[in-house]
Amino acid sequence: MRAIHDPHGALAGGLAAIRAQYQIPAGFTPEVLAAAEAAAQKAPAGHADRTEIPFVTLDPASSTDLDQAFWIEPSGSDLVLRYAIADVAWFVSDGDAVDAEAWKRGETIYLPEGKAGLYPPILSERAASLLPDGPRPAVVFTVRLGSDGECRLEGAERAIVRSRAKLAYDNVRDEDMPAGFAEFAARVNAAEAARGAARVDPPEQEVEPLGDGRYALRLRPLLLSERRNAALSLATNLAVADALQTAGTGLFRVMAGPSAKAMARLRSTAAGLGLDWPADIDLKALERTLDQKNPHHAAFMLAVRRAGNGAGYAPWIPGVTPWHEAVAATYAHATAPLRRLADRYVIRAALAVMAGRPVPAEVEDAFRRLPAVMAKAEATSGQIERAVIDLAEAVMLQGREGERFAACVTDIDGDSARIHLADLPVVGRTRIPGATPGQRVDLRLDGVDLSTRRLTFSAAD
After folding, report:
1. Which residues form the RNB domain (predicted)?
2. Cβ proximity of 138 and 159 under 8 Å
């Protein structure tokens, strides 16, 4: 972590400029807020009572928009996951003011000083959020996990649930969790390896508020608690995707692998970073050996993420098996409806399929329209995230013009090279004619432009 010294408030001003540039909404219109207020009063009807299940949540300590609560119990040699997901569709109706605004936004946008939510806070952080302050309507998925790590969706129902505890990634203890939590994650991870999956989870390059207007820029590896928690979502999303694909409906998360050209660049990058990558070992096998805490490994993981063709959404098409290369399976998003628009419709389809009912026509129509909406939202969110990081890097390096920095080239595009500084959590681009991925370079910082959030480097003499 590197503290950012910002005595003149450039970061705060820059964040305001980013909000203006990308037209990030500061809130919701009175019409949407009024509709959300009314929706929050809607009493559950037809929900089963599952308040006897001791659900818990696990999230960042500051989070209040809690999508998921869970409980795990043994069943012979299997583990059964009860996964409660916020029942957003209970509160939001097709075509109402809240729904229309959500279609404009697509997903929640996160910024260091706050967020632009997909839904108004009275829903996303109160009535629909699975907070431990009272019963909440939810959709409970029942996922059976075998000893081989294979998962199957056994049920999906609307239910009233009560979370017993709001647990946090950074201080949760093993004794706080259901007894099967670690074993469930281990089985899911083993199954991933067996089918040749390799989800790349590089450390996140992020800006962290420290209080009093101060921030820090860091590369943050995922905690063990985060990785284990992610296994619950992964298993549920795989099970839901399989059920929908079998039923001939759904919206799926799809991604192709790196091209041959990208693979060649990755091998050069690995060599430059000092990674041992034998010719007879494929990329996925190498990825499973990487350590987020190793700076060279982290740089390579970032390069792998950029080398892929990017993930997207695709509706069910007869005769086509939707595929997510990193997961090495058919995969869907169904576990974060407070933050992603698409999940609300996937959940509705799963409820219908598991009840033996036809999927509503409006859900099938949404599956056809959502890929374009989600692609636009994800692209905008990615641009905003990059702009925030660029701003933090510029503020951090302001005043250090003329200094030399060791770096590694992780990718090239003509004479433009993407570089990763060796001793700072800074990833950028500079012109280095003839550069090759993996090349070690010494750079001089020539300029810092806070207005454009741009760092200018050149090869040091």
Report:
1. 47-356
2. yes
